Amino acid sequence: MAENTKITEIEMDEATNKGMLRRNEDDILTGLLTAANYRNDEDEITPIEISRNGKVLIKFRIRPLSEEEYTRVRNKYTKFVRNKNLGIKMPEDTDTDMYRNAIIYEATVEEDRAKVWRNKEAWTQLNVISGPQLIGKVLKAGEKDAVCDKIDSISGYSALAEETVKN
Length: 167
Known about the structure:
This protein is an alpha+beta fold. The protein has a single domain, classed as rbstp2171. The chain has helices spanning about 15-35, 65-75, 95-105, 110-115, 120-125, 130-140, 140-155, 160-165; strands at about 45-50, 55-60, 80-85, 90-95. Helix 2 runs antiparallel to helix 3 (about 95-105). The chain is flat.
């Protein structure tokens, strides 16, 4: 310890100590509740524009996904087989195309999902029966890749997120 460093012990009465603890607990609770509300937080919503040849064709907004949402979508589009030796189900194959379509569909804000991906006229004209199938028909592979990357980023899967957690 450096010679110039001085440590001062402050004595607090029990009431002051409990008051500080209560304020700290309120700050923790506020932080937890704010963090848990990321799905509905307007600041977390990101606009997406799909442009081709300088013309915007589709606009929609996306929100962060939870780990549970990623897992539910992955399980829906993964074929599982029972391992005879271990007696448990193991993933055999994932329909990556439909998985990516469904991730985009799931991350699309409900209002935009209804207007864009549940457009019944588009379903009829493009011969699809669901929003994820419509996404597969209208977005190019690279466009889907860019949107999925953005969803991953706002959901916390990025180098910036790692830095945020470290600091």
